[in-house]
Amino acid sequence: MERIAQHAATPSANPAVPPCAGLCEALEAKREGVSRRAFVSAASLAAAVAILEACGASGATSPGGSGGPITVSLASYSALAAVGGVARVDGGSGSPTALVRTGASTFVALSLVCPHAGTTVAYTGSGWTCPNHGARFTTTGTWSGGQGASSLSSFATAYDGVAGTVTISRPS
Predict the structure, then answer these.
(1) What is the DSSP letter of 113?
(2) 47: exposed, middle or buried (C-beta count within 10 Å: 0-12, 13-18, 19+)?
(3) Considering only CA atoms, which of 121, 132, 152 is closest in space to residue 53?
(4) Is the Cβ–Cβ distance between 139 and 86 less than 8 Å?
(5) What separation in angstroms does the CA of 138 have from each of 18, 37, 103, 117, 129?
(6) pTM listed for this prediction
(7) How far is the C-alpha of 9 from the C-alpha of 158, rounded, in Å?
(8) Domain 70-169 superfamily per CATH
(9) Residues 10-64: pLDDT tens digits?
């Protein structure tokens, strides 16, 4: 530091160039606490966050479903009256969840969170599609194309034909 201060006090041979040229600016930046290394580290972190945000963080939810078990009254969802019917049944509680009727007394419950991008997949009439990167899944959640290569998470179901309900065992 002493040598820098001495240099700044030494007159320059060229009157057009200030005595400390760029040295004083570097000293000023150092004095303010921002080193080149800290700046580059912070800029790199910001770039990484921006890239992750662009890859699907908007509308992101926790994968695998959450919110605990739910009981679905089939009478509340006319689409589930017939085999092949699909309905979103989470009611805004926990992770987005759909129920698919695969047989007279069988159902598949799916987390609608894309396993690659973490956003909610949309039903297209013939399956599910991730709006962020185009991954496609069958109606029952099996990966069928596009980016990513894993299926939607599914949850255990218990059908009560007398009560007309299906209980979905989502994790808490």
Answers:
(1) B
(2) exposed
(3) 132
(4) yes
(5) 71, 48, 16, 17, 9
(6) 0.62
(7) 84
(8) Rieske [2Fe-2S] iron-sulphur domain (2.102.10.10)
(9) 454 555 555 555 545 554 555 566 667 665 655 555 554 444 444 433 333 334 4
Contact status, residue 130 vs residue 146, Cβ threshold 8 Å: yes
Rounded Cα distance between 3 and 9, Å, is 10
Contact 170/67 with Cβ under 8 angstroms? yes
For residue 94 the two structure tokens come to 């926990």
Paired residues of 113 in beta bridges: 120
Is residue 65 scored above 90 in pLDDT?
A: no
Residue 23 tokens, joined? 């040295």
How far apart are alpha carbons 33 and 75 in whole angstroms?
65
Q: Coil, helix or strand for 47?
A: helix
Task: Give every CB contact of residue 132 below 8 A, 6+ residues apart in sequence.
Answer: 55, 56, 58, 114, 117, 119
> Boundaries of CATH 2.102.10.10 in the chain?
70-169
User: Rounded to the nearest 10 degrees, how much is the dihedral formed by the CA atoms of 130, 132, 135, 138?
Assistant: 10
* Number of residues that this document lists for the chain: 172
Backbone angles phi, psi at 72, to 5 degrees: -105, 125
